[in-house]
Amino acid sequence: MKNDPDQLVTITTATSEFTAHILISILEDAGVQAFTFGSTGTTLGVVGQSTNPRWGAPVQVRREDLGTAREILLANRRDSIDIDWNQVDVGTESRIDDGSTPGGTPLLARIGWLVAATLVVLGLLLAIISMTT
Predict the structure, then answer these.
(1) Model pTM score
(2) Which CA distances in Å does 101 have to 73, 94, 117?
(3) Residue 54 half-sphere exposure, CB side, CA atoms within 13 Å?
(4) Sequence-distant (≥ 6) Cβ neighbours of residue 29 within 8 angstroms
(5) 63 secondary structure, DSSP code
(6) Domains with residue ranges and CATH for the chain
(7) Residues 54, 40: contact at Cβ < 8 Å?
(8) Is the pLDDT of residue 122 over 70?
């Protein structure tokens, strides 16, 4: 049973499920079927990135495809190192009209924070006044 070619083996542990799905897409584009079944951290309610491999999301392939999958991921890493960002169009305009300027906070959100902060300060002042009387 240990040499079953269809047995799933972990090729790497990604730092997040998002990263795991990117790796799976790379493998599947090259013709290797890959899987991830979530991470321990997500199961426990811990979200975000983690550098601890136990909390990451394992990427698994069939034992028979392990060597090919390693070559594909190494080739992808080698090919993606030399990106000339001056040649990449990353866009310069905000395409979502949400009432904000690019990179800024929407006016309605600023007003909401101001109202919330004012209510908190007033609540604290009322609590202090009621304690002293």
Answers:
(1) 0.53
(2) 39, 8, 23
(3) 1
(4) none
(5) G
(6) 8-81 (3.30.70)
(7) yes
(8) yes
Q: Note the pLDDT tens digit of each residue in 16-36.
A: 888 899 999 999 999 999 999
Structure tokens at 56: 């990451």
* Residue pair 20/41 in contact by the 8 Å Cβ criterion: no
Q: Of 69, 80, 71, 65, nearest to 27 (Cα)?
A: 69
Question: How many Cα atoms within 13 Å fall on the side-chain side of residue 95?
Answer: 3
Burial class of 34 by CB neighbour count within 10 A (0 to 12, 13 to 18, 19+): buried
| Neighbour-count burial of 32, counting CB atoms closer than 10 A to its CB (0-12 exposed, 13-18 middle, 19+ buried) | buried
**Based on the number of CB atoms within 10 Å of its own CB, is 27 exposed (0-12), middle (13-18) or buried (19 or more)?**
buried
- At residue 78, the pLDDT reads 83
Amino acid at 51: T
Q: What is the pLDDT of residue 22?
A: 92
Q: What digits encode the pLDDT tens for the residues 35-82? A: 998 755 555 555 554 445 556 789 999 999 999 999 999 998 888 766
Structure tokens at 101: 């300027």
